[in-house]
């Protein structure tokens, strides 16, 4: 059996998909070619691409008035490409950002280069929630507190802060378009496209391998890009060319397509959401009753995907990681900005893997607590 991999991304793949890709590696469906060797304009790859888009649309119930773009550059490139493509929606070239963790903070900072960018709200301060003190970036600013300028082109938020472990998806219906970085919880739960106007994600957590970036954008927001926006990153041009304006990341699209088919076999996004909830509940309920470990995120916004936790005796961190790896539990080290541990339990992690982690944690606590 392979070890359990808790990496935040690139992260664990569904094993069935790895096997399928292995069997198709040298000869895809009798074509005599690996997908890597195919022309991106040939009929074989066009079929792979079209099925991947359709499966993604089916899974997320993407309405017809949204374009699905397969791009490159990762989610961080979108920190520049969102303003380059969308600030022009209104003449004032303004946008408002909600900062709820490291990733949305990066988005906010990069957007500054392109226009009049303001904070709509930030959780980057200690606050009181239900009478208990909540640390900076461990909570999510209530939508009722957001300061959105009526002449803003869009509001930007992050639905799951991969480092802080803060997840929020209860979006308000705003008068300006809502742009959501869904990199680390895409396909783990439904997206309400009556409230979300643009959703983007680096694929390398729930959707596929690194190298593919998915952008889902309402079609009437296309056509307002900054004249300096490179063609290869211009949403309107990419949409018009079916994500084939230049050579797309063909093998990543193929693998993402296999992940989408796997997810359909699991019962789709509603079924996987239930499984994700059960996995997260198992780990949080253990953390909450323990005096040895703790998670400091406000309970209402705890991530189902990325669960950071601290040992109350940080001098045991290295030993924890060494013993965990020996027990077949890999990549549990927390992000350096928060320390401690982080278990990323995306769609591909079965309940069995989370149970193995909890069993190990119990044993470690019994030996060292
Ligand atoms: N946003 C979020 C929520 C992320 O988790 C990450 C990567 N971990 C990024 C943005 C940046 O993604 P990329 O490395 O694809 O640029």
UniProtKB/TrEMBL annotation:
<keyword id="KW-0664">Pyridoxine biosynthesis</keyword>
<keyword id="KW-0032">Aminotransferase</keyword>
<feature type="binding site">
    <location>
        <position position="162"/>
    </location>
    <ligand>
        <name>pyridoxal 5'-phosphate</name>
    </ligand>
</feature>
<feature type="binding site">
    <location>
        <position position="103"/>
    </location>
    <ligand>
        <name>pyridoxal 5'-phosphate</name>
    </ligand>
</feature>
<comment type="pathway">
    <text>Amino-acid biosynthesis; L-serine biosynthesis; L-serine from 3-phospho-D-glycerate: step 2/3.</text>
</comment>
<dbReference type="InterPro" id="IPR015422">
    <property type="entry name" value="PyrdxlP-dep_Trfase_small"/>
</dbReference>
<keyword id="KW-0808">Transferase</keyword>
<dbReference type="InterPro" id="IPR015424">
    <property type="entry name" value="PyrdxlP-dep_Trfase"/>
</dbReference>
<dbReference type="GO" id="GO:0004648">
    <property type="term" value="F:O-phospho-L-serine:2-oxoglutarate aminotransferase activity"/>
</dbReference>
<dbReference type="Pfam" id="PF00266">
    <property type="entry name" value="Aminotran_5"/>
</dbReference>
<feature type="binding site">
    <location>
        <position position="181"/>
    </location>
    <ligand>
        <name>pyridoxal 5'-phosphate</name>
    </ligand>
</feature>
<dbReference type="InterPro" id="IPR015421">
    <property type="entry name" value="PyrdxlP-dep_Trfase_major"/>
</dbReference>
<keyword id="KW-0718">Serine biosynthesis</keyword>
<feature type="binding site">
    <location>
        <begin position="246"/>
        <end position="247"/>
    </location>
    <ligand>
        <name>pyridoxal 5'-phosphate</name>
    </ligand>
</feature>
<dbReference type="InterPro" id="IPR022278">
    <property type="entry name" value="Pser_aminoTfrase"/>
</dbReference>
<comment type="subunit">
    <text>Homodimer.</text>
</comment>
<feature type="modified residue" description="N6-(pyridoxal phosphate)lysine">
    <location>
        <position position="205"/>
    </location>
</feature>
<dbReference type="InterPro" id="IPR000192">
    <property type="entry name" value="Aminotrans_V_dom"/>
</dbReference>
<feature type="domain" description="Aminotransferase class V">
    <location>
        <begin position="4"/>
        <end position="357"/>
    </location>
</feature>
<comment type="function">
    <text>Catalyzes the reversible conversion of 3-phosphohydroxypyruvate to phosphoserine and of 3-hydroxy-2-oxo-4-phosphonooxybutanoate to phosphohydroxythreonine.</text>
</comment>
<feature type="binding site">
    <location>
        <position position="41"/>
    </location>
    <ligand>
        <name>L-glutamate</name>
    </ligand>
</feature>
<feature type="binding site">
    <location>
        <position position="204"/>
    </location>
    <ligand>
        <name>pyridoxal 5'-phosphate</name>
    </ligand>
</feature>
<keyword id="KW-0963">Cytoplasm</keyword>
<comment type="pathway">
    <text>Cofactor biosynthesis; pyridoxine 5'-phosphate biosynthesis; pyridoxine 5'-phosphate from D-erythrose 4-phosphate: step 3/5.</text>
</comment>
<dbReference type="InterPro" id="IPR020578">
    <property type="entry name" value="Aminotrans_V_PyrdxlP_BS"/>
</dbReference>
<protein>
    <recommendedName>
        <fullName>Phosphoserine aminotransferase</fullName>
        <ecNumber>2.6.1.52</ecNumber>
    </recommendedName>
</protein>
<comment type="similarity">
    <text>Belongs to the class-V pyridoxal-phosphate-dependent aminotransferase family. SerC subfamily.</text>
</comment>
<keyword id="KW-0663">Pyridoxal phosphate</keyword>
<keyword id="KW-0028">Amino-acid biosynthesis</keyword>
